[in-house]
Every structure is written in C-alpha cells, then in structure tokens.
# Entry
Amino acid sequence: MTLLKHYIGRQPVVPLLAIAAILALWSDAALAHAVTLGDKGYIQEITGTKIIPFLYLGAKHMVTGYDHILFLFGVIFFLYGMKNIAIYVSLFAIGHSTTMLAGVWFNFGINSYIIDAIIGFSVVYKALDNLGAFQKWFGVQPNTKMATLIFGFLHGFGLASKIIDYNISSDGLLANLLAFNVGVEVGQLMALAAILLVMNRWRATPSFARQAYGANVLMMTAGFALMGFQIVGYVIT
# Structure
C-alpha cells in the first residue's frame, strides 16, 4: 500500500508525530545520540561492572532518542501484523546492537556529525519509502527488510561513536556494554508499545488515509532538518 493512493487531508496530523517533528526541527544538533552532562560525567568516571546503571542509561537513550523514534515510527507505519512488526524491529535491533557493541569494543567510530547526518537521512529515506516515491521515480521497490537492517547498523555506529568520545573505562567494559545494549532494547520496546498504542487508535479513524500522506511529509521534513543541523555543525567545527 502506498500513500500515492491517498490525498492530503485537511485535518491535523496526530499529536505524537507533531511533537516528534517539533523536537527534531528545533532541538540542538548536538543532542542527536548525545548523553546528558550528568550521564556523560558518570560514564567517564565509572570503573568496574555496573549492570543496573548501564541498563538504565541504555533504556533512557532509546526512549529520549528522537531520531531513533522517528525512524522506528516510519518503519512500522504501514505494518499491521505483529509478526511483521516483530521481524522489522528485530532487524533494526540486530543492526543497532552489532555496530554499537563492535564499534566500542574495537574502538571504531565515525565522526558524530557525519553519522548523525546519515541517521537523519534514514528518516528521510523511510518517509519516501512510505510515500511510494522509489516505485514512482525509479520503477523499483528497495528491499525494505535489508534497508531496515542497514540503517540499524548506521544507528548503532552513531551511539558507538558517542561512547568512544567519552572514553569509557575498559574495566568491566564488556559487561557494561551488554547491559547498555539490553537497556537500549528495553527502551525500544517501551517506545514501540507507545507508538503502536497511538497508531492502532489512529488507524481506526476514518481520517487515517487522508492524514497519512501529511504525516510522512512531516517526518521527511524532520529528517532533512536533522541532516541540515549536522552538516552545518560539521562545516563550522
């Protein structure tokens, strides 16, 4: 199903997406994949295995990571069956977990501005995919599962790069990283549950088909804004 079959509705887009878009448009670019100052200091100073704190930090990162949430929102936008939703969310989780763990463990990161710009692009890509743009422009439909996995890898590199910048202690590193990753997945499930709750109610309304086009255009705009913030930050630093 593509949004090209529908028309732009005059009714307002659901509050959840509007709030997410506003956050993406007006938040400081440095906040993408960032950790609060207090959490940053804790990560830099802590040594030894600290399972519970890193579980909390991982969950907090995902729940407050608007770029993650926007992409996840786009991924499940037209997924109705729980089996399909589970497959796509699992692919994103596998990609995200792999590069986050490997990136920190092997001390391999990507410039934070560049990777966050790419993550902004992932939001644009998914919105265009939902709009059926690739089929219309190029006559082909990219493999959506593969795209979700690849962008999962890129989202993971975003966090890995940030953690590397904070010089996390090697004492207890593996256990702490695993705990952080579990926390990220818990946070992802929490965000997913909230998104599905709103989406299911929204889809049941007669206005969904009319509003869906505008929602994805708004999401695409937010993705472009994220990209722009990061590109400007890269140029001026």
Confidence is low (pLDDT under 50) at residues 1-16, 18-32. The two ends are 43 Å apart (CA to CA). The chain has one domain: 13-236. Residues 13-236 form one domain.
